[in-house]
Design goal:
Elements (H helix, E strand, L loop, with lengths): L1 H4 L8 E7 L5 H9 L17 E7 L3 E7 L7 H13 L6 E7 L6 H12 L4 E6 L23 E3 L8 H11 L18 E5 L13 H12 L3 E5 L4 H6 L7 E4 L4 H4 L8 E4 H8 L3 H8 L10 E6 L10 H14 L4 E6 L12 E4 L7 H14 L2 E4 H8 L3 H4 L4 H4 L4
Length: about 400
């Protein structure tokens, strides 16, 4: 258990998805690349019925998530659902490996899959599998597809284990260089002090802290800055104990209403949810979307989407507290719908507003996909912390740590 708790969170790992038709050898290739029996292998078409994910270390990349998907030519009503699930996995894929049966060559269906991958701007590799069956025959590609042998094409044999190391290296070459994005460390300097307000209530996980709190602590320590962790009621005493005021107070969003009155105006104040929204690239949109809460009408439907799948408690922020705060702020009777984990509606047109969590458990690619889907439908999109700050009248103050975004806040 201790080793699991010390692992890189899945949301921070490179997600590598293997796609292709049934019997192209996806699962066999996954097993060879990972050196594990991660996927069930069979000559029967459609053996892989749902996307299979595995967090692991893959050299030379490091921490990754491997995704093995069902065949995208599956048939029948159940097959169509499997194909849908497979395509949904593209939303969290950072590098796509299109596995093609080299003995058959690229089919129209393979090109259709490739088109979906390219449409999402996902770096890709075409792995021509089963080369042991081709007798060295060359495989041609359509002109204009941007397919370059040696750059994004490689011949492999999962049966004989040929070119597997070369495939791993090619996958690594497609990985984006670390952008150096920080949660909060870039806003601090050595020896700066931050106070983190982490309430422990009925909804807090027993015996541990939530991921954004842990990640924020680590990011502060990486900067050689300092932090004090406290609960809400003890915050005034903590602030009084300093000879020099801290540079920043970060609170759980649900306690914005209390904490805003405890922290002097000359100390920056924000929330873990707002920090995470910025880290995932959705903060500016979340700020614009927060103001739309004032335009909600009786009967409007609001989607509250949680990226993780924790067991919801009696005072859960997403399903209990947020709906109550929204109705109290708007004085309207609102319909609320809720999703968790990988669930996210395909049709967003019926929603007047989408309120998303900070997305600590979701890859940035998936968060951006969800935001873009809302924008395409013209639906306002915000996140927990941003909306709560807005409803408490302190959105501008909570964005002081991000002056370029604060300047746009009305």
């Amino acid at each position: 258990m201790a080793a699991e708790l010390n692992q890189t969170p899945s949301a921070n790992r490179i997600h590598i998805g293997f796609y292709g038709l049934r019997n192209a050898g996806k699962s066999s290739l996954v097993n060879k690349v990972t050196n594990q029996n991660l996927a069930i292998v069979s000559d029967v078409k459609g053996t892989t019925t749902d996307p299979v994910t595995k967090a692991m270390e893959l050299l030379p990349l490091g921490p990754v998530v491997i995704i093995d998907t069902p065949g995208l030519d599956d048939e029948g009503e159940l097959g169509a659902l499997r194909v849908k699930k497979a395509y949904q996995a593209l939303n969290k894929t950072d590098i796509a490996v299109l596995v093609v049966d080299a003995s058959k060559g690229m089919s129209d269906e393979d090109y259709a899959i490739l088109g979906r991958i390219k449409a999402k701007n996902i770096p890709y590799i075409i792995a021509l599998n089963k080369t042991d069956l081709t007798n060295g025959d060359a495989i041609g590609f359509r002109e204009g597809e941007g397919i370059v042998p040696g750059d994004n094409v490689i011949k492999v044999s999962s049966l004989k284990g040929e070119n597997i190391d070369e495939l791993r290296n090619l996958i690594a070459s497609k990985a984006k260089v670390d952008s150096g994005k920080r949660i909060v460390g870039d806003k601090l300097k050595k020896s700066d002090m931050a106070v983190l307000v982490c309430p422990i209530d009925e909804s807090a996980p027993k015996g541990r802290m939530i991921l954004p709190q842990v990640q924020t602590i680590r990011d502060i320590l990486d900067e050689h800055a300092m932090c004090v962790v406290t609960q809400t009621d003890e915050l005034p005493k903590v602030l009084e104990s300093f000879n020099n005021p801290p540079k920043l107070v970060v609170t759980d969003s649900q306690d914005f209403g209390k904490v805003k009155n405890m922290v002097p105006e000359d100390i920056m104040l924000t929330s873990f949810s707002i920090l995470m929204a910025n880290y995932k690239g959705i903060l500016e949109t979340a700020v614009k979307g927060a103001a739309s809460v004032k335009d909600l009408k009786d009967g409007d439907t609001v989607l509250i989407s949680e990226g993780c799948t924790h067991h919801r408690q009696c005072k859960d922020i997403g399903t209990v507290k947020l709906p109550g705060w929204i109705e109290n702020f708007t004085k309207k009777k609102i319909n609320f719908e809720f999703t968790q984990g990988g669930e996210y509606p395909e049709d967003l047109s019926k929603y007047a507003l989408i309120v998303h969590c900070g997305g600590c458990m979701l890859p940035e690619r998936e968060m951006m996909y969800r935001l873009k889907c809302a924008e395409d439908e013209g639906v306002a999109f915000t996140n927990y912390g941003t909306l709560i700050a807005y409803m408490n009248g302190i959105l501008g103050r909570s964005l002081q740590i991000f002056p370029s975004i604060a300047d746009k806040c009305v």
